[in-house]
Amino acid sequence: MTDYDVIVIGAGFAGSLAARDLSLSGSRVLHLEARDRIGGRTWYKEFADTGHSVEFGGTWVCPDVQPHVKAVNDRYGLELVDSPMPQSFGYVLNNEMSASPFPIPMTEWCDFERALTYIDTNAARIRFGEEPLGQEGLDDLDVSFEEFFDRKSWPVYTREFILAWASFYFGAKPSEVSALHILSWVAGFENSAVGFFTGVSQKYAHGTKQAIEAITGESRAELRLQTVVTEIDHEADSVTVRTRAGEKFTARAVIVATPINTWSDIEFDPKLEGAYSEMAKEKQTGESTKIWALVGNQETPFYGVGSSTRIKWLATEYQIPQGNLMCGFGCEEAALDVEDSDAVAAAVKELLPSADVIAVDAHAWNRDEFANGTWMAYRPGQVMAYSRGLQEPVGRLVFAGSDLASGWAGWMDGALESGDRAAKYVQTLLTSELEVKPA
After folding, report:
1. What is 42-105 written as a DSSP string?
2. Which of 100, 141, 161, 412 has the fewest CB atoms within 10 Å, counting from its CB?
3. Span 371-377, average pLDDT
4. What is the pTM of this model?
């Protein structure tokens, strides 16, 4: 007799949705989370001492093209707000500063249009959302985005602007992230690179915290925080989970809803093989440096992009009495220590030289033992090699999380998609094993 029907490890959006659905179906569910909070790689909390909360992790949603997010929003009546429309700009391309609303000089407009068409045409080859992402015939796209983009010849401003977008959107150098993964997001925006550039504008009015609490609040699972799983023994008829504190739990099935980059910290018996083993060793490449800065002398909402700057994207997300609260992204942990306030302030000034930086705040996700990186960014070659295998259950062991999504891998929608898929597999497994008692 096992302690539970299912143990779900990880209380981000994937694990929380799976725990909710399985518990509501009547299963005995134990939900374990290593942190002292739910939410995983989302984290809505107060910025510095301003009394204003911001998203230190995942932020934006696009319900018009993200069906799983839309389903959650509709179910719980969650309110969204738009990011401010920028009125001032700062671009650093070709080592030149520009305050123009459009950073591409007129001499390159035709080339820029050609670049967008090149991206859109290749994105349209992807059957977006079909399982898995690594579909037949896409091998030529599973190279670095830099290699893919440089198959054509582009003038300098167009090239640097497009590569900068790839950098901050995925938290990785263009030479280190798969073009196939990047193009899948363009495909998600209905094969529109313009949609890719402009589609990220909505966020939860009361933070991702409200969304994750709504899901968990409906769940009937037994939730335990600050419970770090260190071992998983998966056998033919049951699974045993052991924790850092020495606790032991058994279940008929286990869902591991933790980031890929943390898998190597768990001892699996039998050991993981195939795609799971290789990804646990290689890891995904996302190591974004996300910062928040309060700028006191900025009257209008700001927007900036840079290619050689440490922060590749910087934009006003809130206007509060103290000033503009700006969010920024870089793509190399080594380039910017997010916990060094002077370094962050100096990096902000690379895009906005006049900035009066009052305060900065951030979370070092790359040094967080329960993340070991940021959102999903496949390395070149990993999509075709592993994405299919990462969706195959290992007996009674099922993996979930935004990293494993077929559609929006790296987004909250991807986490919800994956959690839903894992819950349905486990429910089918448990139902098939029910003993039919004689009448």
Report:
1. --EEE-TTSS-EEESS--EE-TTT-HHHHHHHHHHT--EEEPPPP-EEEEEETTEEE--SS-S-
2. 100
3. 98
4. 0.97
